[in-house]
Give the backbone structure.
Amino acid sequence: MTPGRPALREPSRTAPRIGVLALQGDVREHLSALHAAGAEPVEVRRAGDLTGLDGIILPGGESTTMGRLLTVFELLEPLQRVLAAGLPAYGTCAGMVLLADQVRDGRPGQPTLGGLDVVVRRNAFGRQIDSFEAQLELDGVGEVHAVFIRAPWVEGVGNGVEVLARVGGHPVAVRQGRLLATSFHPELTGDGRVHALFVQMVRRAMETQQPADQDRQDDKMAAQETEKGAP
Ligand code: GLN
């Protein structure tokens, strides 16, 4: 490193830093699945925790409650901003509802993050089948054992959205660019392949985005240092 130049880049940091929204849900399970997939997991509880993230997981829970907590913890707008700026995100179940541009059977005024060009129906599988498990074929991953808990399904997809898996004809896993969403909970089955898929998406996003962005940032910081050091 050039002497006097600030240490902006951590040369040893190859593991993507991936946040897990820690307001509700299987936070610990997501953190350990991310760790197993070679990422550096970070709990996200407040807006400052979003700094330096390469991706984020929005866990399951209750999307209405999570929406309310996002507002209370002043995370709603900061999260909307980082997502709009292209932060890769993976939403499971309620996390899928939060990412959806349109929500059916939501509460009136239910706050969401949006960004994923899909219509999602909450609790879509009905009250009789509150929770169930199914074997399904997940595109790019293979056969997975999927756990559904008061799960949503996807009822409409925009042009840029790939459907990766279906149950009874209904899409339950989708991807749109840097966004991934599943109706089911891979963190509960100890099968790390879906988290590995997301970590791979994050790595790709880092490769395609970072050099230019980081160099620009380095130059800006170096310029600021020079200014500070100028007599
Ligand atoms: N039914 C919940 C909702 O709409 C989702 C359930 C879950 O995340 N397991 O937010």
Confidence is low (pLDDT under 50) at residues 1-7.
